[in-house]
Design goal:
heterodimer; A: 4-stranded antiparallel β-sheet; disordered N terminus; B: mainly alpha
């Protein structure tokens, strides 16, 4: 699963507005499963209750879906959340990638097998699975979907997932074989990327017409998932209804799921509290948590997530080029205090790009201590001293002063810049907080024209950090700190080549040791994903990947 | 009169062109790129370039602008929205009814409340009611409408939950009989139209008061009073009718406020509409959609002003001949 997460969606009102609206963090990515962590909260305990069929659940979302054909509409999280309930993949990636490498459950394919050399992967499709118009789902659909995904006229943004697939071969109506250029760790993930599309319904429109025909797909909508798209009023609401032709006749339990679009954060919370919506997906800010907890009709669903937030030092800037200086900067920032005041127990101090809840996290890694004395000592050894008595460190006549930027619409990050400013001042460094509009920020990241920036990344389930730490991703990917280290480049390439990521555990540990030593970024926090739900809503399986994971198994307890 | 009309129309067309050109080039000068913003994950440079080429964004802005203008002028083709992947005209047409509904309801509130407050203040000039209304209307107009909206939601949807916090319909309202559906719609319109309407009424009240005071001081009103015409008749028939001319002109002035106010109100109350469409389009740098919505809004405002000009021109030869 390719996962988003390095930014907040540009869907909140501008900064002035956001402040008044008490907008909290708007995390960019999807959910995770309730776990046994002390601080995480599980949904209301269901006991031995049996699911009840019927009813309607209303989900509040701050953004609408962008369309019904994922190949041509912008890939946003709400779009994926909904499309993955009305269309199916070959297999379903499970949300357990924190405990082990991603695992899969059957979806349209009931079995799959690699050849001994791992250069082909064969799927056996489920018999009896049909499209919503009754036409059987066959291997032809799978092959044609791959052709659409890779066709240049279609312009699918995720087409790179198919780069190493050379052919998709139909062996018989229920068997399909993927051929790969080479064996590598992410083969199943890549083959499975993208939902299977209805050839019989959608091949009538030439690929060249696809990018401007979002309406055509809606008018010719044929789906395969547990839900049908019953209606959709853009910007307002969409209604999912039970698909009577779904291959598992037990499911879904709910008759209807209504997704209501509510762009304003505080209005969304009000709607949850007065019963207008039953589920708020990942949109509860830490400041609103006490109110949700105190409400006897609501349950809080919180779990450790995959987003890590840090200060990215521009490693190309002479002031931040020295790793000892970056270590000193990390030690001069009191991260625990920042976490305590912004998140309470809903976050913890980060130490690694592989979050502490992920199986490959280095078990002996600890955040660098907060030690301003030691920071001052290191800085002095590197030539940063207050020679003119103005309270600021200087070197070669230049004071240690820089801009600390972050993006608008994210209150926690903006607050963090101010706290960091105060903490760095105590060691004689002047950080000037600056909140930038998102587009300006992206431009600065690409051009490397920033000093330091509070930003973050979402963990990719395949634990591929090429985009974050490889030198070739500087200005072209998520290598925000512009970090270059040949040892790291080699290591990343080795990890990527490993046929099984489990075997690369040692290398992943080494990667984390290097990051801890070099401090290209100063990790600030790893936070929990926080959903709010009506207590009547049961078996909510939100996980690290999706808030609406297994939506077909959600059910609504009768009102008392 | 024809010459006057032709001149005004030409000026309006030129103004529209200027507005669109300014929006187009400002938008392109602003940092950001649809290829970056539409996708929640980071694309590599190569992928981004591929998308930009597919969407025609790799051409110089001047060339893109010329092509866009030619398509609009010659074929009436407003292009395809990058965000929605549908024709811009369709996206705007779909958003229009929501905005018309909100703007209509808000205008009603504005007219009724603004007029009532304005007349009351003028009648009680210098007295406590006048001061109270003047201060209150100034306060109303100075409050940001998003703040007013959030407070309204907090009060009437949370603290005293009598009205919905947003949207135009309740879940399942389509199953209700027609009167029930109408009532449901009205309930949903109360808060947003009051918030937007009262915000505008602040300005209207002040306009009405000043216009009325000016008229009330004129000779014919004094004459009417001296002839024993009742105060009620003087006010509502003689004075207000004459004061109505400038008040009608306020309408043209109110239009931009109504449009920009509905943007914020639509976002706060999750209503469908042109304002929210524009909001999303600007944030994602959906150039064709921003231009389409701007063209529409600018045309409405310019048409409103043109109509006011024409009305004024028809009433006042001095304007027509100037």
């Amino acid at each position: 699963m390719r996962t988003a997460g390095f930014r907040t969606p540009p869907r909140l009102l501008p900064a002035a507005l956001a402040g008044c609206a008490l907008v909290g963090a708007a995390l960019a990515a999807a959910g995770g499963r309730p776990r046994e962590d002390a601080a995480a909260e599980a949904p209301a305990r269901q006991g031995p209750e049996r699911p009840v069929r019927g009813g309607t659940a209303v989900i509040g979302s701050n953004a609408d879906i962008s369309g019904v054909n994922e190949l041509v509409v912008p890939a946003t999280l709400p779009t994926d959340e909904v499309l993955f309930r009305i269309f199916q993949h070959l297999v379903e990636e499970q949300g357990d990638f924190d405990e082990r490498p991603p695992t899969f459950e059957p979806q349209l394919a009931e079995a799959w097998e690699f050849s001994p050399d791992r250069k082909t992967l064969t799927f056996r499709l489920r018999r009896g699975a049909v499209w919503s118009d009754g036409v059987p789902i066959t291997a032809e659909d799978v092959r044609w979907t791959w052709q659409a995904q890779t066709h240049p006229d279609v312009g699918w943004t995720d087409a790179s997932a198919k780069e190493r697939i050379t052919d998709v071969q139909v062996l018989d109506p229920h068997t399909v074989r993927f051929h790969f250029r080479e064996a590598y760790g992410k083969q199943l993930l890549d083959a499975n990327e993208g939902v299977i599309l209805p050839k019989h319904a959608w091949s009538a429109l030439p690929f060249a017409e696809w990018p401007k025909s979002a309406d055509w797909f809606r008018e010719h909508l044929v789906t395969s998932g547990p839900f049908l798209l019953a209606s959709w009023k853009p910007q307002q609401e969409l209604v999912l209804a039970r698909n009577p032709r779904y291959y598992d006749p037990r499911l879904p339990y709910l008759d209807r799921v209504v997704l209501r679009v509510v762009p304003e954060q505080s209005a969304l919370l009000t709607m949850l509290r007065n019963g207008e919506v039953d589920f708020l997906s990942g949109n509860v800010s830490p400041a609103d948590v006490p109110a949700v907890r105190a409400d006897p009709d609501l349950q809080l669903i919180a779990y450790w997530f995959k987003l890590t937030v840090f200060v990215a030092w521009n490693n190309e800037d002479p002031r931040f080029a020295d790793r000892e200086v970056r270590r000193a900067l990390t030690m001069a920032i009191d991260r625990q205090t920042i976490v305590d005041s912004l998140w309470g127990e809903l976050a913890r101090v980060g130490s690694s790009p592989i979050l502490a809840n992920i199986w490959a996290h280095h078990p002996r890694l600890r955040p660098l201590p907060y030690d301003p004395q030691e920071a001052r000592r290191i800085l002095a050894a590197r030539g940063w001293r207050d020679t003119n008595g103005d309270g600021l460190l200087d070197r070669g006549g230049q004071p240690f002063a820089f801009e600390l930027t972050t993006n608008t619409g994210n209150q926690q990050r903006a607050d963090a810049t101010v706290m960091i400013q105060e903490q760095l001042r105590r060691v004689g460094i002047q950080a000037e907080p600056r909140v930038l509009e998102f587009h300006t920020l992206v431009e600065q990241l690409d051009d490397g024209t920033f000093d330091a920036m509070v930003t973050g990344i979402g963990l990719d389930t395949s634990l591929d950090f090429t985009s974050f730490l490889h030198s070739r991703s500087v200005g072209d990917g998520n290598n925000f700190p512009r970090y270059r280290n040949p040892e790291m480049d080699l290591l990343l390439e080795e990890i990527q080549r490993a046929p099984d990521i489990l075997q690369a555990r040692g290398k992943l540990h080494r990667l984390q040791e290097i990051v801890a030593r070099d401090q290209p970024v100063s990790f600030l926090w790893e936070s929990q994903r926080i959903h709010g739900a009506n207590r009547r809503l049961r078996d909510v399986q939100s996980n690290i990947l999706f808030s609406l994971f297994d939506l077909e198994e959600w059910w609504m307890a009768p009102a008392r | 009169m024809l010459w006057f009309l032709a001149r005004r129309l030409a000026a309006a067309a030129l103004l529209l062109l200027l507005v669109l050109s300014a929006v187009f080039f400002l938008l392109h000068a602003a940092p950001g790129d649809p290829a970056d913003l539409l996708i929640e994950e980071r694309l590599t440079r190569a992928e981004r370039e591929r998308l930009r080429a597919l969407w025609g964004l790799d051409r110089p802005p001047a060339e893109q602008y010329a092509a866009w203008l030619a398509a609009v002028a010659l074929r009436g083709d407003w292009g395809t929205s990058l965000l929605h992947r549908r024709p811009v005209r369709q996206v705007v047409a779909e958003a229009l009814p929501g905005t018309l509904l909100l703007a209509g309801a808000a205008f009603l509130v504005d007219a009724v409340v603004g007029l009532a407050l304005g007349v009351t203040a003028a009648r009680r000039r210098g007295r406590a009611a006048d001061h109270l209304i003047r201060a209150g209307s100034l306060l109303l107009f100075s409050l940001p409408s998003f703040w007013l909206g959030l407070m309204a939601i907090l009060l009437f949807s949370h603290v005293w939950p009598v009205l919905p916090a947003g949207h135009l319909r309740s879940v399942g309202a389509e199953a209700l009989p027609a009167p029930g559906r109408l009532l449901d719609l009205a309930r949903h319109l109360v808060l947003p139209s009051l918030v937007l309407g009262l915000w505008l009424a602040g300005a209207t009240a002040r306009f009405v008061r000043n216009g009325l005071l000016e008229v009330l001081g004129q000779d014919y009103v004094r004459t009417a009073r001296s002839l024993g015409v009742s105060e009620r008749r003087v006010l509502w028939v003689h004075a207000l009718r004459n004061a109505a001319v400038p008040v009608v002109q306020i309408l043209a002035v109110t239009l931009p406020g109504l449009l920009s106010g509905s943007l914020v109100t639509e976002v706060v109350f999750s209503l469908p509409g042109v304002g929210r469409t524009l909001f999303d389009a600007v944030l994602t740098r959906d150039y064709p959609l921003v231009l389409g919505v701007t063209a529409f809004s600018a045309a409405v405002v310019i048409a409103g002003n043109l109509a006011a000009d024409l009305a004024h021109g028809a009433l006042d030869p001095k304007v027509r001949d100037a």
